[in-house]
């Protein structure tokens, strides 16, 4: 066990006791990165190298010197007896969809590859104000558009530390891979349809999608502005709570950041689940997806080992005193992806119109006749296939003649999805749930190349996570076992608006009750290789 | 296999509106995927929707008590305007330079 393998709260304690320095913690993380990460993602990576398949490739930009300066400053404060922030000396990585002043902020796209942010996103600024040390910017699906991290323009793309021929999930794949591989105890991600929770499940780490508006979006390069939620990724629930504490809260720079005080997420963390009502819904134990050849819908149960993990978790929580409520109807869950195909594309197309080769970012080097030709060539060369697909779909379904049929209808279906949750969580209703327990994903991590290119099948990877984004409610994914291949299985708790403290408490109760479970002793393949070398 | 909703002409119009310029391979892939996605989107039409179901433009309600107050409409200069201007691909004497802007005479 090296320093970089310890959790944020353990490191914080050691630092405050004077047993380690911030620089020692940082150097441990940098050493781990040097040993397991391989070459960073680049626009022109050349031919694949044999060693690429043995590395994680979480990073696009490592900011080691910036981090060293920050760590030295923490150590000086410590030596001078000055007060330290709650995350002092704790390294973290940042999904490269956040602006950080003076660093390349690429969105994993060629069109922003040369963009150096002139300001810092609020969640990053708050982490640094709390004393945390930014290690650098990590890879993602281009503009967050994907569930495998394979659409990034920066290659090699990240691999799953648990099994290096598998995807880490996405779009926060670099974030979850960096945390799972011990490169950093914390990472800042974003979740628009499941982009924190799905890769957290695939990489065996904890991921929190806060309530929409709980964490400021200022400085986040926008995808779906009514859906995007910045949130923490960590190796355990306590660390996720520590990080959410630092980044949550009102922000004068974001008018959608809720003007609500932030509760103490750590205060009630160990209070257990006795008396809490936790629901299970049959609608989260099956997946519905279209067969592209027949144009018809197939419905299948989720794989037995994932369903079993959820049921085992329910048993654990019942043993701890929770009341498990079966058969909670969530009938509109299956419409989450079709509605998302419309809503997110309209918002994405709107947000992507700003990339025009004029104000910042890439501009075509080709000779052009006029401004319009410059726009077309710039956008064709700068955007990858996934942004183009989203722009075209967003324009089609929001066109005046189709808007009622598609966009308006999808927004009304969104109302039905929201109502499912309101009925389940209504304190005076039939179910009166404190939380819903579900699988996070319909599969464990799939092989690289197995799904990428089929944009419909890829989107359905988010079927169990996207309803929370439509509804705006919070969710947390935590590890709950391994499948027959030794790949992590994630379970998800969903709760009413601004119930993060309760979700963290339930997740922590499960985590504590399973501390000694054999599956918790398993380590990612990349760390096993390290131990054997 | 359902009929293609987005035919070549509709697709070409969308590409024009989106200010894109695609080669044939990209166009074939993107048009195929758009039609596949529309196949999934059509599931929405099977949902019974009462006339009184309103739209939800964002999930969490924003009652006045959790809306941030509007700040004063004060001019706040950005400290490093050069950092912003320096991001533009072509700048001359503080102006962003672009190729010729085509003019259309409206009738």
TrEMBL record, chain A:
<protein>
    <recommendedName>
        <fullName>Glutamyl-tRNA(Gln) amidotransferase subunit A</fullName>
        <ecNumber>6.3.5.7</ecNumber>
    </recommendedName>
</protein>
<keyword id="KW-0436">Ligase</keyword>
<comment type="similarity">
    <text>Belongs to the amidase family. GatA subfamily.</text>
</comment>
<feature type="active site" description="Charge relay system">
    <location>
        <position position="95"/>
    </location>
</feature>
<keyword id="KW-0547">Nucleotide-binding</keyword>
<feature type="active site" description="Acyl-ester intermediate">
    <location>
        <position position="195"/>
    </location>
</feature>
<feature type="region of interest" description="Disordered">
    <location>
        <begin position="149"/>
        <end position="178"/>
    </location>
</feature>
<keyword id="KW-0067">ATP-binding</keyword>
<keyword id="KW-0648">Protein biosynthesis</keyword>
<dbReference type="Pfam" id="PF01425">
    <property type="entry name" value="Amidase"/>
</dbReference>
<comment type="function">
    <text>Allows the formation of correctly charged Gln-tRNA(Gln) through the transamidation of misacylated Glu-tRNA(Gln) in organisms which lack glutaminyl-tRNA synthetase. The reaction takes place in the presence of glutamine and ATP through an activated gamma-phospho-Glu-tRNA(Gln).</text>
</comment>
<comment type="subunit">
    <text>Heterotrimer of A, B and C subunits.</text>
</comment>
<feature type="active site" description="Charge relay system">
    <location>
        <position position="171"/>
    </location>
</feature>
<dbReference type="InterPro" id="IPR004412">
    <property type="entry name" value="GatA"/>
</dbReference>
<dbReference type="InterPro" id="IPR000120">
    <property type="entry name" value="Amidase"/>
</dbReference>
<dbReference type="InterPro" id="IPR036928">
    <property type="entry name" value="AS_sf"/>
</dbReference>
<feature type="domain" description="Amidase">
    <location>
        <begin position="54"/>
        <end position="504"/>
    </location>
</feature>
<dbReference type="InterPro" id="IPR023631">
    <property type="entry name" value="Amidase_dom"/>
</dbReference>
TrEMBL record, chain B:
<dbReference type="GO" id="GO:0016874">
    <property type="term" value="F:ligase activity"/>
</dbReference>
<keyword id="KW-0436">Ligase</keyword>
<dbReference type="Pfam" id="PF02686">
    <property type="entry name" value="GatC"/>
</dbReference>
<protein>
    <submittedName>
        <fullName>Asp-tRNA(Asn)/Glu-tRNA(Gln) amidotransferase subunit GatC</fullName>
        <ecNumber>6.3.5.-</ecNumber>
    </submittedName>
</protein>
<dbReference type="InterPro" id="IPR003837">
    <property type="entry name" value="GatC"/>
</dbReference>
<dbReference type="InterPro" id="IPR036113">
    <property type="entry name" value="Asp/Glu-ADT_sf_sub_c"/>
</dbReference>
